[in-house]
Amino acid sequence: MKKIVLSLLLVIVATSLSAQAYVPTDENIKSREEFAEDRFGIFIHWGIYSMFAQGEWYLQNAGLNRDEYAKAADAFYPHRFDAKEWVAAIKASGARYLCFTTRHHDSFSMWDTDESDYNIVDATPYGRDVLKEIAKECKKQDIKLHLYYSHADWSRDEYPRGRTAKMVTGRDSTKINWPEYYDFMNRQITELLTDYGPVRAIWFDGWWDHDEDATPFDWQLDEQYALVHKLQPSCLVANNHHQVPFEGEDIQIFERDLPGENTHGLSGQAISRLPLETCQTMNGMWGYKVIDQNYKSVETLVRYLVSAAGKGANLLLNVGPQPNGELPAAAVERMKAMGEWLAVNGETIYGTVEGDIAQQAGGCTTRKGDRLFVHIFEFEGDKLILPLECEVVEAKTFADGAKVDYTMTNGGIVLHIGEVKDSVDYIVELRTK
Ligand code: GLC
After folding, report:
1. Residue 284 CA to ligand 1 centre (angstroms)
2. In the list 62, 68, 157, 163, which could disulfide-bond 172, CB 3.0-4.6 Å?
3. What is the distance between the alpha carbons of residues 37 and 31, in angstroms, rounded to a whole number?
4. Would you say the CB of residue 255 lies under 6 angstroms from ligand 1?
5. Closest ligand 1 atom, residue 101 Cα
6. Between 3.50.50.60, 3.30.200.20, 3.20.20.80, 3.40.50.1110, what CATH number should domain 2-351 receive?
7. CB of residue 205 inside a 6 A radius of ligand 1
8. pLDDT tens, position by position, 416-433
9. What DSSP character marks residue 346?
């Protein structure tokens, strides 16, 4: 009897231990703070899908045979790939970090993994570990490295089938084996966090593949997140599940919408107190899509970045490199222009927090200490009324420090701004008490 009681007690202790709330380490908290200060990152979607030039979902969208699709690897020779150029373009954009797709839903690994031959070193004539080169350049050029890693897998036999890729053929369903797939992922994650230097974030994606299962699917995330934190305590765990953050996550992600908005149907979830990030495409696709030349204008992109900052969020802006390894010229041009804008106005973006006044169609606000930056995108008339609760002791244009007349009323502050000269973002700086 004693024995039974004892083992029961042990079971209770063990379960309560594993159910313990996640407490981020000091390194992790510091990393979160640095992440939030950065405000701008570049997302890179690149893989053998780039060769089909139809976006990264081509395998599933076209319902291809897995093995036929995989033949593309044998022709992947991105002779214009130059990690130095990529990272220099990212640096020039004013972005402070890069998130690279190490393994997307198609299952192809973009590094020299020992866990599968279906990778850029073993399966392509190119044979180079591009991740090694990228990691090295990031370090050199002081750009933080984040790694995208797909939970969902459309090629491996062991992966339990989810709601996507039902039309993909060639997979052997008799070999479905979750424990095997889970171990495979954890071994790959271990490689990524052991062999490539400091990784500031692991960006998971694909949880949603099982969000319609009759019995809730257990991804065993707790254990996986703990592994990430054990290998690199400062590494931030992110998961693009479109839900409020789960235990063990360090940042909250929004896809294609700013926090609190939901024009794409993926982002209605509540906003947590974790650092926030919105990922967005520069055209309409993540992976290279030859038909999609519908790039957003520099004005739209700058305003999106500013609006993200106004909501206290980072912008992770995507670029889909070409099959030859080059970043599309249209993307590089826009990145350069964003960098030029940030070189002048970055002080109102980097290291700021959400402003006092909620975003409106015509602009938003960001704050740094006692400085409140009013970003004006659209404005007609000569008086701008802002429902500000604090007292203002000074108002000037950010561009040249020219005094801006204002009056305080019960409803807030009235700025007499006259003609708005900068059509992208006219910034008024207020000093508040
Ligand atoms: C979605 C897509 C995926 C893309 C990701 C980026 O989850 O499935 O292809 O990589 O969004 O945010």
Report:
1. 12
2. 157
3. 10
4. yes
5. 10
6. 3.20.20.80
7. yes
8. 987 776 679 999 999 999
9. G
Phi then psi for residue 362, to 5 deg, are: -85, 0
Quick check: 339 and 298 in contact, CB under 8 A? no
Topology given in CATH for the domain delimited by 363-432: Immunoglobulin-like (2.60.40)
Give per-residue pLDDT as tens, 283-299.
Answer: 999 999 999 999 999 99
pLDDT confidence of residue 1: 46
CA of 142 to the centre of ligand 1 (A): 26
Sign of CA dihedral 271, 272, 275, 281: negative
pLDDT digits (tens, 9 = 90+) for 11-57: 444 444 455 799 999 999 999 999 999 999 999 999 999 999 999 99
Residue 8 pLDDT exceeds 60:
no
Task: Say how many Å lie between the CA of residue 100 and the centre of ligand 1.
Answer: 12
Q: What is the mean pLDDT of residues 353-369?
A: 91
Distance 205 CA to ligand 1 centre (A): 7
Put simply, whether the predicted model's pTM sits higher than 0.85 gets the answer: yes
Query: Which stretches of 236-370 are assigned E, i.e. beta strand?
Result: 236-239, 252-255, 276-280, 313-319, 353-354, 363-368
